[in-house]
Amino acid sequence: MDMKKFILLITVMTVLASCGSKDRGELVGVKGKKWHPEKPYGMQLIPGGSFIMGKADDDLAGVHDAPAKTVTVRAFYMDETEITNSEYRQFVNWVRDSIVRMKLAVLADEVGLVPEDGGIGEYAFKDADTANMSVYEKYMFENYTGLGPTGYEGRKINHDVDLIFDTAEYPDEYYTEVMDTMYLPLEESYNGQRTWDVKKFKFQFNYMDIQEAARNRSVKRKDVILKEEIEIYPDTTVWIRDFAYSYNEPMHNDYFWHDAYSEYPVVGVTWQQAKAFCEWRTINKNSYQKSKRGSAMVNRFRLPSEAEWEYAARGGLQAATYPWGGPYTKSDRGCFMANFKPVRGDYAADQALYTVEAKSYEPNDYNLYNMAGNVSEWVNASYDASSYAYISTINPSVNDRDNKRKIVRGGSWKDVAYFLQVSSRDYEYADSARSYIGFRTVQDYMGTQVTKNSNNK
């Protein structure tokens, strides 16, 4: 090729490469969609910043467990209140309905019924009719559906038809057969009432152990994607088991189920159940975002780290004993500032016998309610008496999968004032449920510019 032809070829290639381009050949970067932060419903933005974490030196016993240490945390959102019975019931009902719909779809598939047949056929898998599938959906259906132990993995259940719970309105015998398997057997029922067999309602989710993946570069990606299956109903028997020789049957019977307690904090949930709730909340929100084409996926909801919890509980007050400051548990009008056991044996001295509604008492300066008292709260941390000695000073977090002792913070309705202090630490085993432990969730803030000392909002 002579020099003239070579120069002509380069010129043509340059013109073609620049046609239709708006960057004028400059390095302008890839332009993504504009990002507009959206505060999650019911949450408050906690600005990042530093604080002195741990006990003051005058607490001779506590300082060995939580010596003072200056740490910094990044900005995050936190629930204004503890997760309520009503909110947790939304999770329970979602799991219950999904499992029932799956069983209906499986039976419809086995007996060969489709929506046009009516009855249980209306609950058939949505892919029973492939005519309305997109090219991508059809490809995924043909190549990946059913690759699992049940053969129904990847099948889409039908959420468009309402479930029927009134036995008088069951559409056919197949529907009746499925629903019958979800209740306790007749011999375990009484007074003519059949209740759900709560052990059949389990939530399955996958998550990646990013910490392990980062530490072990040779591990395969599939080996750090973990699967869990958790029973999701709260253990209502905690109201009886936690207190021997005490009559608490009304709380066992009504606390989680009755609308009178809808706005009270959920209790009787284990640390694993609290984590499962976080995973479901993420899935639920992102399913909605996906339905709005073009909407960005949200960061996952999770339990707070121990440092995040204490930082948020302090509400921006350095060296405060309680979320409202302190060192007293009464206001200047003589009213108790939280729900706890202020006098030995006198649970009602603070105007509350058990828990109170999640939005009770005055919030702290971050507008968070009941960061002290009402119910203790699970955090995403394992208990180690010496952890403050070796934790990082930036976003400190200690959560060992093999250590089943998980931190609870904030004290509860049955605790004395010491456990309400923002720096007090306590723990419970991850598989334990208690009548005085609940939780709230957090979500990472997208970006790092929001700090306590900044004017950015």
TrEMBL record:
Give residue ranges for domain Sulfatase-modifying factor enzyme-like: 43-442
State the protein's name. Gliding motility lipoprotein GldK
**Species annotation:** Flavivirga amylovorans
Gene assigned in the entry: gldK
InterPro entries membership: CTDL_fold (IPR016187), Glid_motil-assoc_lipo_GldK (IPR019866), Sulfatase_Mod_Factor_Kinase (IPR051043), SUMF_dom (IPR005532), SUMF_sf (IPR042095)
Keywords in alphabetical order, please. Lipoprotein
Q: Does the keyword Aminoacyl-tRNA synthetase apply?
A: no
